[in-house]
Amino acid sequence: MIKKSILFLAVLVCCFAFSPAPTYQIALLKYSGGGDWYANLETSLPNLIKFCNDNLKTNINPEQAIVDVGSPDLFNYPLVHITGHGNVVFNAQETENLRKYLIGGGFLEISDNYGIDKFIRIQMKRVFPELEFVELPTCHPIFHQKFDFPNGVPKIHEHDNKTAQAFGLIYQGRLVCFYDYECDLGDGWESFEVHKDSPETHQKALKMGANIVQFVLMGGDNVVKK
Q1: CATH 3.40.50.12140 correct for 9-217
Q2: pLDDT tens, residue by residue, 125-141
Q3: Are strands 134-135 and 107-112 parallel, antiparallel or unpaired?
């Protein structure tokens, strides 16, 4: 089966002047193992997408996609988001598919919704056995896109009284995965009635999420290779 190439914003910018139709889509990653991949299904990504379209002037489809880890459709999305509280399992085919997607130019954003850490680390080690998660320094450009976060990833929700951290997987010099830990960006993107976050907290989460989107869409390697 032929996989569609992913075209990032730098390639698609010429399309904005000619077509009002959304040019690409962001997806929520569906996985097995019993964990709640759907934890923030209703409002999280849709709110982030709207924020990006309003503030970054992107043209992202307002409806999030849902894609299985092992699906060839994974290659249709420049960015996929994974979250949850529990177990995560990738089988051999899914592991290989996710690796090819990320090596080819795709990007994975992981948001620890409290409880996913010990599971997702094991699975990502299977995807990239040669790599380790590294803490991203506050000078990393992902914190200094449209919005400036001089102290790095913001603290959104309290879990274990730990400092919020941002980890990354870097493959051949390119950041392919951003992992917010003890931060919970995905929860922060949700609508007020879900967690009753203050407007300031909600805005911090959305702004950091927008930075991730902008970083990905303006990335140097703009096409996912088949």
Answers
A1: yes
A2: 999 999 999 999 999 99
A3: unpaired
